[in-house]
Amino acid sequence: MSESSVPQADTSLADVHPADMPETDIAEEGGEGDLVVDGISKRFRTGRTDVHALDNIHLHVRPGEFVCLVGPSGCGKSTLLDIIAGLTRPDEGEVKADGQVVAGPHRHRLVMFQESALFPWLNTLGNVMFGLKLVRGLTRRQRLEIARSHLRLVGLEQFARANVHELSGGMRQRAALARALAPDPRVLLMDEPFSALDAMTREQLYGDLQRIREQRRKTIVLVTHNPREAVCLADRVILMSSPPGRIRDEFAISLPRPRDINTAEVAGYASRITMALRSYNDPELEA
Q1: Which residue intervals of 86-217 are DSSP H helices?
Q2: Is 78 within 8 Å of 232 (Cβ atoms)?
Q3: Which CATH architecture does the domain made up of 29-108+186-287 adopt?
Q4: pTM above the 0.70 mark?
């Protein structure tokens, strides 16, 4: 399927209605979530400023791989995620998803943000069903069954009829995760989805996400500032520095799953990653 017909202006997913995104037949076949980022550079220019956000980024995320992007604020992690999602156009380079150049949003690459972005006028079930409008050929009964199965997947089945304001922060993020997974995307892009939650809720969601990922085997790219979070979740941790945003190093995480963020093994990897990040701003440490 060509992506050339979708919106190409820099935008936010909150501004993209399902009618503006390509629909996909239930029986559509193709890639499996392979992402290739090839020479991506991006600047943001206004009348007074010129911010060089990304410089010559190269990255290959294999199908079914869980990759975390880690780096300081301003290193371009979220910008890179937006470019992969098709929400922002690069100045140079290209992203290919399953061999096709990304030219705009697509239901095979869905984003989960720091805020749940649930629609307050819909209940929990309605929010999950909303995303299924992206999938062509589903009856209302089928959308209802799929939405309910994904609420079961994230442990929210009994809150299907609850209003958004009745859900806790963690429950809202679970609902957002169910909404993102329900259309069966090949790639799930997550922009600091746990940063606004308390520690206990975050740890519970780490376990939920690991379990769901093992069941569904989606390609996942997650942005975080937290090295421990990255080690707990990822197969590979990509380290970025700024300015401008560049990939400096990567760590393959060989720990068995499921992982507990509080273990010494996770702490050991996180310590090495933290030292590497600090070294980018301190030449003596890097030497």
Answers
A1: 124-131, 140-153, 169-181, 199-216
A2: no
A3: 3-Layer(aba) Sandwich (3.40)
A4: yes
